[in-house]
User: Fold these one by one.
Assistant:
Number 1:
Amino acid sequence: MEYLSVMNAQKCILESVKKLDVESVRLERSLGRVLAEEVRANRDQPPYDVSAMDGYAVRSADLANVSATLAIIEDIKAGDMPRKTVQAGQCARIMTGAPVPQGADAVIRVEDTLAVSNNSVQINRAVQPGNDIRRLGENMCKGEVVLVAGTEITPGVIGILATVKRAQLQVYRRPRVAILSTGNELEGLDEIFDPYKIPNSNSYALMAQLQALGIEPLLLGIARDDPDELAEYLQQGLEFDVLLASGGSSVGVHDYVRPTIEALGVQMKFWRVAMKPGHPVAFGTTQRAEGWLRSSREPPGLPLAGENATADVFVFCLPGNPVSSMVCFEQFVIPALRRMMGHVRLYRRTVQARLAHAVNMRPGRTEFIRVVLSRDDDGSYVATSTGTQSSGVSLSMAKADGLLVVPADSNGLAAGEQVTVQLLDGTVFQDVAGFRE
Ligand code: AMP
Ligand code: MG
């Protein structure tokens, strides 16, 4: 297989993955999910004309002569219903959110009035009809579509859902993801420290990248570079929607991941992308029999509904280098998972920045350089490299705010040049990759 460009690799992945099925969740647990249904207003909002201010509900005609003293006939608090009709020469004291009484056609705020006594007020200002009144249905009208299917549930959306009294919602399911690290040299987090071993950091960095997307993965542990042991672990991973296998995907004689996974029936769609770091990344697909996750919790032997059905499984073979693994997750795994969860905006946000220093490059691959972002005096972003870009230097990934994307045809960048930086953090995504590769 040929080296693919980053964009073509993303395209290949996105052509394979689809939205997952739908499940029902409580409003309180729905932040970050994507609505799988259209939501309509259950009533007019506000349900009647209400005051926008603390003040007096008046008849605008009474104030035509600029100065008037009005009799206060009632006190209407938020939550009260008015009992009286405002007649000529009268007004009602009213609080924000309280219904405007019959007869009144405007509200004048308390700051524009002069108290005369407890039951009369002097007003020295004319008002237009409708002044400081929030009209019935101004926010939403009964039956109106307020949220379309595909809307990402943000705090603002949660507010709307609560307004229309939706306690239970239909959203796209999150993928079940398994992580497998491979390598004889690896030592587990809770294993006794051995100075000759390499701590398994990838499983945890990948776990956190998934958690940041709202996905709680299962860590399958560490498989040795042995085809039989690998096959056993990989087989477990293929029972999930997505398997992330780290390490062993390159050309070393003990890099068994790809052949083993192909032997298990996974069809590799690509292997190798023209990028740095991360070029040995591979992607494949297969199907699993539906029902495994359920059958593991149910008595054996029971026939299951849909037992013969199959579901798609996606496998990403990520390079073992800690930085490469994370960069490949950013470029390929994030768009795939977000599509599965129903999102339309699949890509990390990009920003334009000024490069603080020159960067040497040889053309050929799209490079992702770890950078810290700061602001210059006029408020624009400045990108500064985190230092050595060896893919083994994981501390520089920990420091980075973003990845500067250097197009494959670049011969190097000069200090002060305008560059594109892909942010490494945040809950806001965009609908295009946003960089030139
Ligand atoms: P590989 O892709 O298996 O050739 O591994 C490339 C480099 O990444 C080697 O130096 C490995 O020791 C290192 N590496 C592989 N897997 C992990 C892991 N899970 N955590 C930390 N480093 C790893
Ligand atoms: Mg290895």
Number 2:
Amino acid sequence: MSRIAVVPGSFDPVTLGHLDVIGRAAGLFDELHVLVVHNPGKTALLPIAQRVSLIEQSIADAGIIGNIVVTNWSVGLLVDYCTEVGATVIVKGIRSQVDVAYETPMALVNRNLAAVETVFLLPNPAHAYVSSSLVRQVASLGGDVSPYVPAVVSKFLQKD
Ligand code: PNS
């Protein structure tokens, strides 16, 4: 049986931490879907299609091997997408206890909703403090985000 997993997130923009988790997950599952989901609790920087494109380019540039689909979902619950594509696992990166507290209720709700399990992966500690919100703030104030994001994202943000 083919194991399909989903790595969901806002990815606004994708960071080196996200990419690290995507690379690790790609080695664990037969098929991996990186899913850009609008988070109504956050003010967006990039359009969804742009985020998808930057993730695709970042995965290619990093040489991440695997059966990887990058797409977006905006018509319902995350678990509805999982059911539609036959995914049984959601993968999330955990940087700290703060992430555990944020992710645990979502993982339990997703399991109650559709029996989809969540797997937490630990990223490279070098990326432990990197977040999209930090990147958005540094970029919006003209700072250098190249240590935190793939080169294609850094170039894209510097264009603005
Ligand atoms: O990168 P983020 O913003 O922390 O990702 C959060 C996200 C988008 C994965 C989460 O908000 C989500 O799953 N949204 C989809 C709506 C949904 O299914 N909600 C119920 C599950 S708690």
Number 3:
Amino acid sequence: MTGTTPPILQADDLVRRYRLRQGLFHRPTMVHAVNGLSLRLARGETLGLVGESGCGKSTTGRLLIGLDRPDAGTVCFGGKALPAMGDIRWRRLRMRIQMVFQDPLAALDPRLTIGAQIAEPLEIHRLGSRSEREGRVEALLADVGLRTDHLRRYPHELSGGQRQRAVLARALATDPDLIVCDEPVSALDVSIQAQVINLLRDLQARRHMAMIFISHDLRVVRLISNRIAVMYLGAIVEEGASEAVLLDPLHPYSRALVSAVPRPGRRRSRTILQGDPPDPAARPGGCAFHPRCPVALPLCARFAPELRPAPDGRRVACHLIGDHGGELNKEA
Ligand code: SF4
């Protein structure tokens, strides 16, 4: 985030746990979906939230826009605490915060035309006269690269890429300040993914919106993000400018993720992580990454590292990075 500009979005120490019963005769287990997560987002900035499936990215996205309530911690939007869902203030605020999900077919109503669905938020928030709304819908359609004849079509008559464009047009209808995109291109063909990413990048720059871009795919995240936050088991383990995180990842988990991304013309030895993929219902003690970490020390199983300042304005949660070194010497 730049300088002293107040953030449009600020989350502090978010915690979200669920009880999960895996069978009729099993005791419920506690799933730690989000575990003490804090972040800031400036106006006009895009933060990529990346990590494996089950790391809590989607739950974080829902907490940030108030679709889910944290068990602890706070979310502030525009300097004010996010009101509870259903509260009249939350409904008003929803005009300024929108979310785009992975599956555009599930996000659209099969019984309504595309035109009716793009107009819906304008009608709900009573924005403009009927003719103004019609004009706005046509302008939005052009903005996302759809034609006016798409207005009268139903979702099943559009391709996957066109449906995601329609979802974007609907999300942009109220001119939001913040848009949270949860895996918005992972259900699309690779060639269409690039088109939708370019569109999102272009729209975000023109409208100066803040954006949280959630994805398991670092290749996609790097195309659009100013900053990247790498998540592991409900917490951010490294956060910083995209270039710094991608060119010189500091946390061992970020290093493994980055090493798996093919880079044309460059050879990088890939780090294959050992052990089981992260399970939020069986969160290890100490550093949650220690069972898979190739450079773990004995103390990593006992003490959880905090997210602390590191080189290049980054924050990293690892006993081996930044001022954790002092802690290490004390504990050794
Ligand atoms: Fe690996 Fe220890 Fe750092 Fe965790 S704290 S990432 S286990 S070295």
Number 4:
Amino acid sequence: MSNLLFKNLSKVYENGYKAVTDFNLEIKDNEFIVFVGPSGCGKSTTLRMIAGLEDITEGEISIDGKVINDISPKDRDIAMVFQNYALYPHMTVYNNMAYALKNDKIDKEEIKKKITNAAKLLQIEEYLDRKPKQLSGGQKQRVALGRALVRNPKVFLMDEPLSNLDAKLRGQMRTEINKLHKSLNTTFIYVTHDQTEAMTLGDRIVIMKDGFIQQVDTPYNLYHKPVNTFVAGFIGSPQINFLDISLINKNNKIYGILDDKEFSLGNPNLAKYKEVKMAIRPEEIHFTPFEESIPLNVKINIIENLGDHQIIYVLLGDREIIITDYKKTLLKQNDYIDIYINKKNLLFFDKESTCNVDNIN
Ligand code: ADP
């Protein structure tokens, strides 16, 4: 149970590379925070600075009000779980889990109690006498979690812990990590490049790009109120559609123009723009008319059937628009049809700064 505060944290590697710049964040007690972003954006570097595996170039990190910059890693009360499990191959599962506790001179009976409890929670009781090579990837990852768990850390750090597992197991372990967090009174910080993992695990998500925080928010807000085009495009699968439109003002009403089609737009924050990037999620476009929608005539290009829904790629001139269709409308490739874009859930971005026009005003 701990809160963390990051103040103007920066990391410059010895070769001069700026991996993290001016990182500011407060993490609350017991919060599940996910750092997400494309490879190389500085997620692991930030996590490693918390663990003490990497020096802090500028700024500070505090845990429960105490600055930890100069505290040695082993005294930070933090446990870290890595992607490659990092288990000792020559030791049994039991001894892998007991290792740090023995080093801390904890009583043998106490160690046994802790390991038994953790093994029960993670369902690895029957593997305690095995060596890591006798375990599957999923079992190894459970042991790695168990080894962290027995230390009763103030903060749990996880660096892509599921990326070595196959898709099905990854889904199962994701749910288990969620349950584990709910059953422990511990702050979790989890690094991933996978937006689904981020959205399903995080109470709040920190989206990073090129060493800079882009947005810190709940999964709901990241999806519905992204601050810029990067966040809008990073979260959501299939990706959000971006369409460049021009704007005109007639009698104090704003109209958008797309492909010679004119449609009224209610967002007052658009008044000062002549052009913007309009964005719409694939599930906000339909094949039947409804009020407050923009009709567009498009050509059906590709139909992907996924069982409970289909993903349709259509062409508006040479622009591609992606539609997620849960009604599984009967459609034929190369046909021209009308689609209807939901006006209520449109997003607009400044073309120069890439920022959401609703955040600029
Ligand atoms: P992520 O975890 O988001 O994939 P990292 O934090 O591992 O990214 O790395 C951020 C950036 O810092 C990357 O461009 C990486 O190449 C660079 N980097 C990482 N470690 C070092 C190092 N020891 N020396 C120089 N550059 C490094």
